[in-house]
Amino acid sequence: MAQKKIRFIEVKSEIGAGTRGASLGVDAIKIAALDYGSNMFSKYETVEVKTENHLLFEPQGSAYAKRIKGLITMYERIGSEVSKTLKNNGFPIVLAGDHSTAGGTIAGIKMANPKARIGVIWIDAHADLHSPWTTPSGNLHGMPLAASLGEDNQGNKMNRPDKETVEHWRMLKEVGGISPKINYRDLVFISVRDVEPEETGLIKKHNIKTFSTAEVRRNGVERIARDTLAHLAQCNLIYISFDVDSMDSSISKGTGTPVRNGITEKEAGSLLVRLVQHEKVCCVEIAEVNPTLDKENLMAENTFEILTKVVSQISN
Q: Domain holding 302: CATH number?
């Protein structure tokens, strides 16, 4: 991999989640760094994106896209920082609160490279393919991939969002001036296992490449990484999004939506290290650490150990 300058982008946002506390995840990771005696966060440039978390104390707006106006603003801010980093030949590592803002990261990659074909490796317990028409909760951290894909999924709708919600959803999809930003054929799911029927319909319809936890265990990280990268061989750039709930609920207690039958911390770390070795990988995101749900900051410590391995690999 060509030498790239790592730049941390801190996104302490949690307006897209249903459980409070993910906005504290970034600082929990930094506390873990202090406990380990690491100088990582003084060694690399860090920028903190202004949040809209004040909206948590105000009416949530649409029942099918809670606080979406705030998320449009977040997409624009994050997109700007990610784009600027990439244009300066930097390597953005986004440390996020809830996973809703991942759509802003993808927007930033596309803004910096409007003609590029972007591959997405989504390591997560959830598919995050909901839209205002299908969401069971209205929480936008279940929708970032749908927004990036320009997917409404009205064929499986169970909600009737009002005109204002529909307009805000359109604005969210079109942040950066391009929609869709990614295509289904350029998406790989790893350890996705907690999926609603509306999302399953899209996964089957578009034949999304998926590697289950069982396949990771059976075939090993090296094989999964190789097959993932082979599937994305036609892409110009690759973005990796790592939600800590991809790890098993016995490990990932400090996250809003833990799910059984996930990968281990060792598998997650080895997988990310193997993937970031590829020269097309241009951005990594880590999301959903929530220390308020944890004991002794274990989730953040596990995540920091994984992050350390990733940073070491990129900076080699």
A: 3.40.800.10
Shortest CA distance to 104 belongs to which of 237, 231, 241?
A: 241
Which of 28, 49, 109, 107 lies closest to 297 in space, CA to CA?
28
DSSP bridge pairs for 212: none
What is the pTM for the complete model shown? 0.97
Burial 138-172 (b: 16+ CB within 10 A, else e): bbbbbbbbbbbbbbbbeebeebebeeebbebbeeb
Amino acid present at 241:
S
Structural domain containing residue 40: 5-315
CA dihedral 135, 148, 276, 219 (to 10 degrees): 50
Q: How many domains does the chain have?
A: 1
* CA dihedral for 147, 150, 154, 156, sign (positive or negative): negative
Distance CA 53, CA 172 (A): 18
3-state secondary structure of 228: helix
CA–CA gap between residue 231 and residue 209 (Å, rounded)? 8
Which is nearest to 21 in space by CA: 74, 98, 75? 98
Kindly report, residue by residue over 48-102, the tens digit of the pLDDT. 999 999 999 999 999 999 999 999 999 999 999 999 999 999 999 999 999 999 9
